[in-house]
Amino acid sequence: MSDPWDGPRGQATRSRTSPVPRQRDAEPGAGRPTDGRVASASMRASRARGGHGARSRPTSRAGRALRIGGIGLALLALGATGAGWWVYQHLNGNINSVSLDGKGGTEKADAFGRTPINILVIGSDGRTSSEDCRLGGGCAQTGVQTQTSSNADVEMVVHISADRSNATVMSIPRDTMTRVPACADAKSGRSTAAYYGQINSALQYGPACQVATVHQLTGIPIDHFVKLDFAGVVRMSDAVGGVSVCVSDNVYDTYSHLKLAKGTHTLKGVAALEFVRSRHGFGDGSDLGRTGTQHLFLSAVMRKLKSAGTLTDPTAVYGLADAATKALTVDDALGSVKKLVGLALDVNKVPARRMTFTTMPTAPDPANRDRVVVGAGAKALFAAVAGDRSLTTGSGGKSATAAPSAKATAASAVPASRIAVTVENGTAITGRASAVATALTGQGFSPATTTRNAPAPATSTTLTYGAGQEAEARTAAEALGLPASQLRQGTGRGLTLVVGGDWPSGTTYPDNSPPAAADSGTAVPDAHARTADQARTCAPVSPYKTVNLDGTPMTPSQAYAAARGVPDSDA
Q1: pTM to 2 decimal places
Q2: Helix (H) or strand (E) holding 124
Q3: Using CB atoms within 10 A of its CB, is residue 376 exposed (0-12), middle (13-18) or buried (19+)?
Q4: 402-444: pLDDT as tens digits
Q5: Whose CA is closest to 172, among 222, 126, 121?
């Protein structure tokens, strides 16, 4: 969630003499109306008087238990009469779903037929309802805005491994500059030619365009998306009964309006929204610092759900589903209560110690120091996620290797044009030898390459070479992506490739080995990787003068001390 319009009671975002990197500017054309600040001040004053103002009305623990229990009882007791079906259909009717039209690519199953899940979680900054305008501000001059004004100011790729043993959550900073592909949004009618711009702007052309942009940048297949607006964050934090977070010092972010004393707090409703939106309160005061606090927040959510057994309790799961169906926009493949519950159960299979949160490594944009580009190490991280490789070991520690399964990579002095390969089809699939042979000649291998059927069916693919021809075999193996373990030295001359049943399609050998763990120190450099079981970590409050109060630049802790009349967010 972004705060491009909010400001600290009429003040500029940051002094140009600040000793820290300049903050990200608002989106081009974004104004700075003051209604968000006035609304927030009104809420603060109401809280100080003992009222709740615009903050969501508190719900007692007993009341919440009765509500969740009531949903479960309705499903159980009314099912036999058909009324349970009405409840189920009612929840389904809450869901707003959008087709991805295959723009995010397709995940491939592993050797055991299991498929990973990749979800793009999108936090929209859109003021598309009166509730979002009240929570986010910025609507005084424009009123409720249309969907076309939304930007994806939170983007997290959530990867759940094929065997459900581990998960990776990778944040992509909203200020990343990249190529946005040509898109057309069937719902809004907006379309665009391909352009180079800020990654979060793709949402203006629909969620499918945002998914396609992330897929194009990372190469990671994106099967699904989940989109929340400001009101959605409030609803979901209330649905889980509040989220426990810790801050390293007193903090007052005069932009998101988060105000907390040093220590641990349970945040619900508007307070939770202020925490996940806070950009100036933590780290260096930039969007990169905000991703870290969001990871802490989500880690706390997962620990709470797991410790309470929520995701294995059908009654509680359907209670969450009730909130989720009202708070989320999802893709068609997640567009039912049954599918959302199934996703929750898949997430619950992953131990907290093997849920890794990280941020895409970045570098300053040479053309604009207020923007970033993909940095060193990002490609290794993308490859680890796309290759279904965990960033932790089975025990939850950092793993020892970042590289995928060893491939034949040794260089050869023998040019491909001088290497002929006899390709044999050891499968029952017509044309496999021809397809692979064509791929070889297309890469410059000798036109003397030939094809034939193998003398017997083959389970595994092998490349056999004659004495003194290992270098030639490695060149051919590298061209096909064939592991060195598939090479054999024979007694005859020449190279013979037998395409086996482990290579049923395509012209690049599939990696059928068990996913290797990536080294979080190599695959995720400068990405602040952490796992969800790290409960004692506090969000680091910024030591820099990243906020303004009454025209004076201050650190968030100084602002906390100076703003004695402003109630804390969890007051």
Answers
A1: 0.63
A2: strand 117-124
A3: exposed
A4: 333 333 333 335 788 899 999 999 999 999 999 999 999 988 8
A5: 121
